[in-house]
Amino acid sequence: VDFLKDVYGIPEEKVELLVLGADDEKVEEARTPAVAIELRNKFQIDENDFLIMTGGKIDANKRQVLLLMQAINELGRPDVKLIVFGSVDPLLKPQFDQLLSGCVQFIGWVDSAETYKVFNAADLIVFPGLHSVFWEQAVGLGKPCVFKYMEGFAHIDLGGNCKFLYNDSVEEMKKVITGIVDFKEIYEEMKRIALKKGMDMFSYKKISERSIS
Question: Which of 79, 106, 145, 213 has a Cα-to-Cα distance from 41 of 20 to 30 A?
Answer without folding.
Answer: 145
